[in-house]
């Protein structure tokens, strides 16, 4: 279906080939006016041709009503207008037909051919009519007026509708292009919003997993030591009161340390939740991701460092574990996340020894190399089977998984497994850069 440049709806809502009922009413009105014009012009045509007036009027009415199909077949409308030009009919139909043809998306060679035929036809008819009027004496101007009148009349009836149609057609195509581009941008923005929401959800999931690892490390290690000391306290409470007092003091210190670390972590989460609530009110998922990253950064900055490794080993030794710590290479500082991961690996490995091999001698080795830092925690077989169950230490099975995730996130390598001697070994290598 051809389109003439008037605004059209997204889907047909009018009868037949019209997009809207208003367009159908408009074309019907034009066709009615054109039919009345051609019917009136059919009277002098019938007199000049020597045919009955009724035939000329009916012919004019039928010819003028062709304008009704201008949107569907504009070429047919222009051809009919050209055909009835010698009868001096269809001036309105010719003007509207040329406008419609120029506004349609048709090849320019077809427009040029039909416009040339209309121009020549109008020029010839005007030339003959003006010459006849001058011959009868109705016009007393010079001979120059005949070609002048023919040229100006033909150009006046042909050029303006074609130029207006070309302008309206170009504007309509531009508007359609802009509309399509706007729709495309809207779809892209919607897709980007969905992807941003997915990334935000992924970041929140990653942050929840990381915080769960932090909570596991803090709670598992401190509480494990507290349970070990509590079991020792129960065993020596009556035999050695002084040792019982020391064990009780250690349990209190470790409980306070665990509470302090948990309080700091919960404080970070509360501050992050405030940002998240403001982000939700603003409907900006990106702020949620930034809040999660900021919480992660604060936890890392306040997290443990390798400088506290001696204290960590001392706590295990105070709980009755024989721990041998050795450090190789030049001690230097690393990025906070690297030191925190190395510390947590050693901490979780010692916690596992408390749980599964209580009383076993443990070797902790830390090596500072040129481009990496390596750590290894290896314990000998426990002196008694079932010591872990004796102190009631449950195991959730998440410690090794958390260590592997931490090391892999920094591009390192993590290996764990039993030794040939019956003990257990945990090894990790983390790039220093």
Give helix and strand order, one letter per element, not per position.
HHHHHHHHHEHEEHHEE
Number of helices: 12
Low-confidence stretches: 1-11, 274-301, 385-392
Which word captures the global form?
Answer: rod-shaped
The main sheet comes to: 5 strands, mixed
State the distance separating the first and last CA atoms: 66 Å
Count of extended strands: 5
Beta-strand fraction estimate: 5-15%
Radius of gyration: 47 Å
Strand neighbour order, sheet with most strands: 1-2-3-5-4
Helix content: 55-70%
Average pLDDT level: 79
> Structural class per helix/strand content?
alpha+beta
Overall description:
- Among the domains are: 168 residues, no CATH class; 129 residues, Histidine kinase-like ATPase, C-terminal domain (Heat Shock Protein 90).
- The relative contact order is 0.06.
- The protein contains 12 helices and 5 strands.
- The protein is an alpha+beta fold and 433 residues long.
- It is 67% helix and 8% strand.
- The N terminus is likely disordered.
- A hairpin with a 5-residue loop joins strand 4 and strand 5.
- The two termini are 66 Å apart.
- The protein has a 5-stranded mixed β-sheet, covered by helices on one side.
């Amino acid at each position: 279906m051809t389109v003439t440049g008037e605004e059209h709806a997204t889907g047909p809502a009018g009868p037949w080939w019209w997009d809207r009922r208003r367009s159908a009413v408009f074309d019907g009105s034009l066709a009615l006016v054109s039919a009345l014009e051609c019917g009136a012009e059919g009277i002098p045509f019938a007199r000049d041709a020597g045919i009955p007036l009724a035939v000329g009027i009916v012919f004019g009415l039928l010819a003028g009503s062709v304008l009704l199909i201008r949107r569907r077949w504009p070429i047919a409308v222009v051809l009919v207008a050209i055909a009835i030009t010698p009868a001096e009919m269809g001036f309105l139909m010719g003007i509207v037909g040329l406008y419609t043809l120029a506004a349609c998306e048709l090849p320019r060679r077809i427009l040029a051919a039909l416009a040339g035929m209309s121009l020549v036809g109008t020029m010839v008819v005007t030339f003959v009519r003006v010459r006849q009027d001058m011959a009868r004496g109705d016009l007393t101007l010079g001979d120059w007026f005949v070609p002048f009148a023919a040229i100006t009349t033909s150009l006046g009836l042909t050029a303006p509708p074609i130029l207006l149609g070309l302008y309206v057609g170009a504007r309509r195509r531009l508007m359609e292009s802009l509309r399509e581009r706007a729709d495309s941008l809207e779809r892209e923005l919607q897709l980007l919003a969905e992807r941003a929401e997915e990334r935000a959800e992924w970041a929140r999931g990653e942050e929840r997993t990381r915080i769960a690892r932090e909570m596991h490390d803090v709670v598992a290690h401190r509480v494990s030591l507290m349970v070990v000391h509590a079991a020792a306290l129960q065993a020596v409470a009556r035999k050695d009161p002084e040792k019982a007092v020391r064990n009780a003091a250690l349990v209190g210190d470790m409980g306070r340390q665990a509470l302090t670390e948990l309080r700091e972590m919960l404080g970070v989460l509360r501050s992050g939740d405030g940002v998240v609530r403001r982000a939700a009110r603003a409907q900006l998922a990106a702020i949620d991701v930034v809040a999660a990253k900021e919480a992660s950064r604060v936890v890392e900055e306040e997290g443990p460092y390798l400088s506290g490794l001696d204290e960590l080993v001392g706590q295990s030794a105070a709980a009755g574990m024989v721990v041998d710590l050795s450090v190789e290479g030049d001690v230097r500082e690393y990025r906070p996340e690297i030191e925190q991961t190395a510390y947590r690996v050693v901490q979780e490995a010692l916690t596992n020894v408390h749980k599964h091999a209580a009383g076993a001698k443990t070797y902790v080795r830390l090596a500072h190399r040129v481009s990496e830092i390596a750590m290894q925690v290896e314990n000998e077989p426990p002196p008694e089977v079932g010591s872990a169950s004796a102190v009631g230490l449950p195991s959730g099975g998440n410690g090794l998984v958390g260590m592997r995730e931490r090391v892999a996130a920094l591009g390192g390598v993590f290996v764990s497994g039993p030794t040939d001697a019956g003990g257990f070994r945990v090894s990790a290598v983390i790039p220093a850069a």
